[in-house]
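Hi support team,

I submitted a single chain yesterday and got back a structure, but I'm not sure I'm reading the token output correctly. Could someone confirm the output below corresponds to the sequence I sent? I've pasted both exactly as they appear in my results page.

Thanks,
R.
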Amino acid sequence: MPSQACRKRYAIRRRLGWLRRVRETGGKPWLDDEQQERLKLKARIEEWIQQQPEPVLYRQGRRVDLLKHLRLTLDCISRDLILTCRTRTTRVRGRVVQATQDEFGTVALRTQLLGITEIFEIRPAQETAGLRPFQEARGDFQKTVERLIGKNFPKARILSSVVSPDLEHSLSGKYVRLHFQSGRSRWLAIAASPQEDQAAIDGLLSSGLLWRDFLKEHGSTGEGKLLLLAPRGKLLVLKSRLGWIRGAGGQIHLMEMDSEKEALTFVDLSDCGNLDTALTQVQTFSGTRGLADDERVQRLLALAPEHITWVRRGNGNTVGFRIRGLEFAQLQFGRRPRLTFGLDKPAVVRNEADWARLKGAVQQILSERSAKALPGNGLCMAQSERWLESLILRDIRVVDARLDPRFVYPQVPAFLGGDRGMIDILGVTTKGRLAILELKVSEDIELPMQGLDYWLRVRWHHSRREFQSHGYFPGTTLSASPPLLFFVCAQFRYHSSFPVLAGQIDPAVPMIQVGINENWREGVRVVLRREVTTESTTGVTTGFTR
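Hi R., thanks for writing in. Yes, this is the structure output for that exact sequence:
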């Protein structure tokens, strides 16, 4: 029989055969924050792979073999997550520095070893029903874009044209990227198909800026002007963002694309400051009489008085109950009031047996949704940003001492045309200056631009003095200074592109980058706080005025 120490040293092989659990080299539980994060990353990758019926490994875009024919392991060694792949003839090893999953389920692992970066992809063996049509449609769209360029730019000559992803440099395969010459002018054009969803179209700006930066960094063709080609009728968010991007109107242009008429039209950015946005009335509990005295509310809160919080939802006729940001029960008022609970299929509380099941659900959430929970636990990983939000709401001054804890508004609806976003936290400093907090717990390329969206909408309403007329910040005189934009994210979860994209935003937008501890579930601590400085704008003109 193996000793207990030996059993601790090596975990049991997974039932899938081709993927083993982590080896604990020291034989003791890991308590280090970074090691715990590596365990969680490993569990997340394993979960992604298990979702694929017949996974296939690709290395640098070339097919290796079915995963079941390989010996693929993920090992946590010290503070690194190490990928090892053995075939009959070779052994490949690398440190996983980034892991992503796209809309088709493809898992991309970016690894490094001795200064060499490689991309490993794990894809389904059989393409899903929607994958091949998408690939074919994007190929057809690439030809359409090339034809549009040739028709709308005199003597245009296509120098390069691609629609494939470059994961190492965060370039998506959703967009067509072209380099062409028209007369003496060189252009970089990036286009989104009308078949892409609105989020992909809005991401055109970030991808274009990253592509241009990559070309400049590698001394390639980054000297040309950047051209964003977006489908007709879907430019509102792009247009509003461009008003606050360095070089817009001069080095960066937006064109409306009409594929049916094969027409491209330059978009006038001079009125990009006019936002079609709306502000909702602040939600409070003042309209719900006797809510705190409701017997059902008292009994539910008594199940875990230190952990259960409530929020008013929708039009105020529903109250949601949460534990560490996870909503598990709702109390609806009106003609047919009822209390429901459950994460998947809500059940109505009608009798004592239902109350017993509700109590059991609360105990399960408290047990599994904790900072000490095992990595990969579903309840622990669900709605992580809401969990972080709940911790900051306890005292917003943990982010910045200037913020006023009396006025904190989470999940504020922010409308722009048909786009409905939610500001994570809207607050104010003790001197009356508005503050927007954008929270993230994982890498997100769009973080700077999403933050800019919300800043623009808050600035718009503030300039019209609409906040206090809608019930926000009662008794407070708001400063005329522009709102502060805080980015709050685990220090090592900022995407590598964050400095590049944030650096392209107009310096008139005051941005503060806040890095918090990796084990923030145990309590939020700020490990980095700095003002985001943009690149010099010397010699750069926008070509329009706001």
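A quick pointer for reading it: The longest helix spans residues 131-152. Let us know if anything else looks off.

Best,
Support desk
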